[in-house]
Amino acid sequence: MKTDPDCIFCKIVAGQIPAFKLYENEDALAFMDINPVHDGHCLVISKVHHPTVFEIEPEAFAAVSRVVAKVANAVNKAVSPDGLNLVQSNGPGAAQSVPHFHMHVLPRKLGDELKVNWELKPGDRDRIAAIAERIRAHL
Fold it and tell me: Which is the catalytic residue, given 38, 50, 100, 102?
């Protein structure tokens, strides 16, 4: 499996860095974003290192997409947002913060005025853990 020793997401896949894991299969991993925009904000990544959508194989993209659909449904049931965005960014011009292919499952609130490139603000770890439990209950 292709990895990058300097990639934080590769380190999460390898178990070298802790994460609030939601779901995992052979190809993809879903976990809570530790800088959440709203409750339930999580990420789905390919377990194989692909810096952007331009390098990922179609099969790996499809595997991530299947997990995104599953997790998005669980997030919707767990936190009942007003809406939900799926966000995937590529490169510095798109504000990609980690150069490892990933998709944000991003619950939304009416009137939140969230911009596409939001400011990173660390979240409360206990709250993130509790919301992760609620989401896991629907997977």
Answer: 102
